[in-house]
Amino acid sequence: MATAQEAREWAREHLRGIGDSLYTPFCGPDGDDIDWDAYRTLVRYCVGELNHPLLWCTSGVGEFWALTMEERKRLLEVAIEEGRAANPDVVVQACTAATSAKDCLELTRHAQEVGADIVYIQTPMMEAHGGAGVLRFFRYIAERTDIALGMFNSPSSGYVLTPAESARIYEEIPAVCATKEGAFRPAASRRLHDLAPGLLVWECDRTVYRAGWLRDGIVCPAQLGTAGYLMETPQRRVFTEWWELIAADRLIEAMDHARESRLDVFDLEVGPWFTCYPGRADYFTHWGSAFKYAASVLGLPVGSYPHSRPPQVELPAEGRAQIEAAYKRFGLID
């Protein structure tokens, strides 16, 4: 793991390749328990069978808002244990977002103690007084820890940092070395790079990669928090092949591969279910049930309670049917 002082140099060398944002498999009445065997299988699958070099733990896909502090700590510990057993060099990223700075600090200190490589802090979900408030939040954590920090700029927070606000956090907090820009606004990511060229930016909009942004140094050579394991199998490594072409700057071949494999239309065919609840269509969400249903279609274990915990609702039959049909067209299942 990188100390705060080493964070920026470490990040330039190690934040590379496909990362996997892990779901949390639930079991028991109303999903009150975690299926630890299923979770261990998921980690081994991502790191061992798919050979993805980055893990993203207890973040949006993992439904961090529905987990207890102890559950979040144990999920990270198991990911480190199983991931490093499969690949000692796997980079483990922990999301320690919380509604209070003290809870975030406790989770960040724990991540540092158990050997996570970097911690990402989502823009606070409640009562954030703009960029100044988020800066104060980051400073509170950075002054009490010694680990690499990243920003996680997601619209699910209800507040998205402007490029100038993110650049100021990077300028004032030396431990901050990277950001996940999850708002699907490439123009803002481009502006952020102009303001803070040393900050490693991961952009959720994949079109920027085939536009040559990696070659130009605007985005970093990593997909830091994707659910890459939902876009390929060990037998058909569609996403890995696309990413390797992008990383090699073979952009025309990457575009041809995406078209011929249907990777470029897969998101459209899945529909909005991963990130949009129809009853609140204006709000960006990480719908845990949708991610887990997709995983189950691919044969991955999701626990005996395949839904999300409250306050999310169960995925309707319409969503399940559209996701399954998309995977059939994609060719990942019969």
UniProtKB/TrEMBL annotation:
<dbReference type="GO" id="GO:0008840">
    <property type="term" value="F:4-hydroxy-tetrahydrodipicolinate synthase activity"/>
</dbReference>
<keyword id="KW-0456">Lyase</keyword>
<dbReference type="InterPro" id="IPR002220">
    <property type="entry name" value="DapA-like"/>
</dbReference>
<dbReference type="InterPro" id="IPR013785">
    <property type="entry name" value="Aldolase_TIM"/>
</dbReference>
<dbReference type="Pfam" id="PF00701">
    <property type="entry name" value="DHDPS"/>
</dbReference>
<comment type="similarity">
    <text>Belongs to the DapA family.</text>
</comment>
<protein>
    <submittedName>
        <fullName>Dihydrodipicolinate synthase</fullName>
    </submittedName>
</protein>
